[in-house]
Design goal:
- The protein is mostly helical.
- The chain has one domain.
- It has three helices and no strands.
- Helix 2 packs antiparallel against helix 3.
- The mean pLDDT is about 85.
Length: about 55
């Protein structure tokens, strides 16, 4: 479970791009192997959103 690293939008603003990418990768792995929980999907979306915000800012 990787969601503990990205519980809220405020938390992800302080993570580096590398940390966000690592969380996304771990979430993708969990989704692919079927072990993902709801929180993993949420963390995936939150981290993707933050990376997109930084890209377009």
């Amino acid at each position: 479970m990787v969601h503990q690293f990205a519980r809220g939008n405020d938390d992800v603003r302080y993570l580096s791009n590398e940390e966000l990418s690592e969380i996304i990768s771990k979430c993708e792995d969990a989704i692919q192997d079927g072990s993902a929980e709801v929180e993993d999907y949420e963390a995936f979306v939150v981290c993707q959103k933050e990376l997109a915000r930084r890209t377009w800012a």
